[in-house]
Amino acid sequence: MRKPCCEKKETNKGAWSKVEDQKLTDYVLQHGEGCWRSLPQAAGNFGEDEEDLIIKLHALLGNRWTLIAGRLPGRTDKEVKNHWNIHIKRKLLLMGIDPNSRRSLLSPTPTCNPNPATAATSLLDLNLDLTIAPPPNQS
């Protein structure tokens, strides 16, 4: 007998919040009904704020997924790594940003000795002033 998908460590088994209800409703309206076991993985459930934090932490820590996931409550290193590789890298590429170097893919690359002053202009302006706060109270 296989275990239900909700028997994962740190999974909220209580009542759903209004935000979670809306995410589920939106997902079913967009993708239709299907297999409940695959829903969480297919829906993704990463918010824009989480993606921004992952990008900033990746710029600081590289591929240290365990350290990055440690700053995202309820996320595993595998979830974060998969989300980075499947969604965030593609998103950055579509924005014209190299996900590994965070340099613009649109600016020309120097052919001889690069000038540090001009090289700095091609870097993505990342604010790495990271803060950690408890989640907001849910009513």
What does this protein structure show overall?
The protein is an all-alpha fold and 139 residues long. It has a domain at 19-107: Arc Repressor Mutant, subunit A (Orthogonal Bundle). The protein is built from six helices and no strands. The longest helix is centred in the middle third of the chain and has 18 residues, at 77-94. It is globular. The relative contact order is 0.10.
**β-strand number:** 0
Quaternary: single chain
- Helix content bin: 40-55%
Strand content: under 5%
Biggest sheet details: none
CATH class identity of the domain at 19-107: Mainly Alpha
Low-pLDDT ranges: 116-123
Q: Which structural class is indicated by helix and strand composition? A: mainly alpha
GO molecular function: transcription cis-regulatory region binding
Pfam families: Myb_DNA-binding (PF00249)
Keywords: DNA-binding, Nucleus, Repeat, Transcription, Transcription regulation
Subcellular location: Nucleus
Question: Can you give me a brief rundown of this structure?
Answer:
This protein is mainly alpha-helical and 139 residues long. Helices cover 45% and strands 0% of the residues.
